[in-house]
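pasting for the record
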Amino acid sequence: MTGPRFEFTLHQTDGKARTGVIRMQRGEIRTPAFMPVGTAATVKAMKPEAVRALGADIILGNTYHLMLRPGAERVARLGGLHRFMNWPRPILTDSGGYQVMSLSELRKLTEEGVEFRSHLDGSKHMLTPERSMEIQRLLGSDIVMAFDECPRADRPRDEIAASMELSMRWAKRSREGFDSDAAHAGRAALFGIQQGALDEDLRRVSAQALIDIGFDGYAVGGLAVGEGQEAMFGVLDYAPAMLPEQAPRYLMGVGKPDDLVGAVERGIDMFDCVLPTRSGRNGQAFTWNGPLNLRNARFAEDSEPLDPHSDCAASRDYSKAYLHHLVKSNEILGAMLVTEHNLAFYQQLMAAMRAAIAKGTFAAFARGFRRDYLGQ
């Protein structure tokens, strides 16, 4: 592998919106970037080469799921996650913290970490900042996420504050754990995660703690957990500016197409979300004129493609009537084609935003997008 360990260059700003590039040894990541989610070493219903062909520069893998099955040590023995799943480009791995809190049973949170039972077989595990760094190292992650706790935004403020402070202590331990393996740290990057829910003061404290520790990039965590778009945008009106301007800003777990446009408008550079793939498996297609439920009877005799102007064959070469038939019949091909279309749409949206920022026309682009997509 050649190239820098991690280098972020801002090419253009337009208001708060930014476009640039992250350079890493396994390739370049154009920003704003959308990362398809490959939870269990697969972007569901997609071949890796097809994900790349649609325009993805980087994908996300999930520490919690991979540590449970097939196991990080096994993936390492098999040559690492890139070789295991045939994805030679950058991979970001999350820390496992969110899934431990949301999926596992009988979890016990302490200063040390989280003890939990697997949602698969009930086996007992302990996940700490150090173990999270070790798992992500065994997987061969290019962008490693600090281990954190992500409480719901509707919890009492004292609970949110205590959780944020714990996450900042864990962030420091994550930094030390990451740095303890010079070989991996010499070719990978580490991102810290800002917490504080909807509280501006807590967000500021969290941002300063992360800056004091020092990270390659910074995530805005603790959003898209049920607070709604208006509240999320309210936080994004101030939170990105608390983070270093010359580092990428990553909004975790977001989101709908209009979420992405609004977040880029507020200074976010990176995103991930299961929505395009999960919706694809359930027959929902995202288009420039809004989402379509292909199960709806009105598509039964609609001979038009989802997007005749798309370079994606799934969007261009199959009628809505055929896709309706596949989805209603629960045919595997239906999930494959609608997922491919959705991922193509998301990458086309990111490319359009990058182009608009570069031209200095992002505000006009955002207005036009909302008019067509939301009818506003």
